[in-house]
Amino acid sequence: MAQYFTVHPQNPQPRLMNQAGQLIAKGGLVAVPTDSSYAVVAHLDDKSAADALRRIRGLDARHHLTLLCRDLSEIGHFARVDNRQYRFLKMATPGPWTFILEATREVPRRVSHPSRKTIGIRVPDHPVTLALLEAAGGALMSTTLIPDGEDEPLNDAEAIQERYSHALAAIIDGGACPLQPTTVIDLTQEIPEVVRRGGGDPSMLGLD
Predict the structure, then answer these.
(1) Which ranges constitute the DSSP H helices of the chain?
(2) Is the dihedral angle over the CA atoms 117, 201, 87, 75 positive or is it negative?
(3) Rounded CA gap, 98 and 82, in Å?
(4) Which end of the chain has fewer CB atoms surrounding its CB within 10 Å, N or C?
(5) CA–centroid distance for 37 within its chain
(6) pLDDT tens digits, residue range 94-142?
(7) In contact, 191 and 207? CB cutoff 8 Å
(8) What CATH code is carried by the domain that includes residue 99?
(9) Which domain holds residue 107?
(10) Number of compact structural domains in the chain
């Protein structure tokens, strides 16, 4: 049975966030609001948690899990970033963007794409998500909480509790999210490619 934490959306209570961080450290999955939609997050170094994330979504190993980072410097620890790529990251973070980059050896194979050795990575612009990253002590692997066989992510913490309490260690209720996916940009190519349009406007980065 998942623990249920109701937090202030702008100033989440440190005590509750620390409790959620401790559950993640023990291998638990936690649902958390982000600047796009609710996501499920887990400890980066936990293989069983990565498998559990994919089971919740009905995903196979070819699907990118997204790495949530606290800031730009943390991105550089997990992804190879040249000067050109850094300019895009600096313009867009934090915010509703996911960037596909070449993964470093710090990224477990179970998180990166198995053939391309790439990783989807982002810095969310949401006080609750950032507070959880701090409480957990660093980057977390994540996936959008879209039920298997459905198209839309869940956006209500109580509905998440009803459907996934058995599979999650905790649910953080920080209110509704914008319910718009991140814009995904592939920066591994010479010309950046807009893979998916979402909350971030590509024209802001000089992309069509």
Answers:
(1) 14-25, 47-57, 72-78, 83-92, 127-136, 157-164
(2) negative
(3) 17
(4) C
(5) 10
(6) 999 999 999 998 887 767 666 568 999 999 999 999 999 999 999 999 9
(7) no
(8) 3.90.870.10
(9) 3-205
(10) 1
